[in-house]
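In these records, each integer encodes one residue's backbone shape. Here is one protein:

___
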Amino acid sequence: MKKTKDDVFKLAKEGKLYAGNLIDGHGAAKEKLETFTPIDNTLIGHVDSSSAEDVDAAVKAARASFESGEWSALAPAQRKAVLLAWTRLIEEHAEEIAALDCIDAGKPITECLNTDLPATLDTFSWYAEAADKCFGRISPTGPDALGLIVKEAIGVVGTVLPWNFPAQMYAWKVAPALAAGNSVIVKPAELTSLSAYRLTELAYEAGVPKGALILVNGLGEIAGKALGLHPDVDVVSFTGSTEVGRYFLNYSAQSNLKEIVLECGGKSPQVIFEDADLDGAIDHILAAAYWNMSENCSCGSRIIVHSSLKDQLIEKLKAGLANWKVGLPTDPETRIGPMVERAHFEKVKAFIDESVKQGAKLVHGGGIREDLGSGWYIEPTIFDQVTPEMRLFQEEVFGPIAAITTFETEEEAIALANNSEYGLASSIYTLNLRRAQRVSARIKAGTVSVNGFSEGDITAPFGGYKTSGFGGKDKGFEAFDQYTRTKVVWYMN
């Protein structure tokens, strides 16, 4: 039954929301986790807490489905039809799914409705249409042989999702993996499992076999670890912190050397040259720094600006932030909601206190809105005079704090941009096309946007350099590569 956002908010107030395991032929987990909303830290429901045995049952069901061919052996056009039917169902239930992410992650409802869910739908529909358009090729042999270069589904795919974009990241992982013919096991973040449960239910309604798409909920250190260590999982695609990404590399080494795809942390620079159009750029600069409460791996929190523009930039940032309302995520006017949980709130708040002690100059924000709900609401904050030695310059905050650093020359700007262990995304602002080409070629990041903030659309692959990850890409046709194997079939006359 289709629910409105008000229906979801009512169920949350009653503590009746639930995300159970969906494992073909296997019941719910014995243990349950209480789940709370970061809006006001009240109980909104329960989530299954999977054991290693639950994960093993999930892998066995996924393997059986894959080997049976009930999904993997379908013609790509048949898989496409089912995925398109699923997309239509998601569109019908978009308000419900958006509300689940709002209440579960503390994301502003307007962002969920107008940004996250449209992107989720685009992802599902694009990969549905791509399912019958990705294929192998013939090797250019002589007349004595015929070489077929074949793309095959890899088998059982484990996807481990982050908490910052629950529905959208589900789509980025699941849509291409299913379109390629795999059996997929989804392990959402324990903080944000509700939309994954509903999306999976809708998949079954559309005709995806229950063995081809499985949901296991629970703690990362139990369920995620069991998935990473399981010898019959062929690939794990993970989005999250660099620290946890290293765990999955170790799990692979300790088990079957399964392929690991990592999209990890970031500390993205925004480089603003002296010829930048500040009036045209300011909304992009703000979005890069503060969108989704800055709980975004491509967040452009390092603002590296030519010294001649610094004062003007700060005034424009302050003026722009006047329109970024801090408030309850259920309010359509809210732009900044709470941090996702208390532990994360404390981490972000510590960056404010430490940056002041290290000599950075607080020029805007920094306050805690204890009058709102849980009290985990942090005002958008700007620090000036941030140097490369400071933690605020080097470490991912994942909270609404921007760090301003100045430069004098192009070489200095490039050096500052690359002075990070991360390399996920970056932005350049300049009206000089030759400079844009030079600088974008030298910045070590998987995505470089020029005169705007963007991760590209669904056609553009997304992934990072350095400790931001490797092993594959989300989005684009490139995403199929991490969920397929290449086989050569060589016919000899």
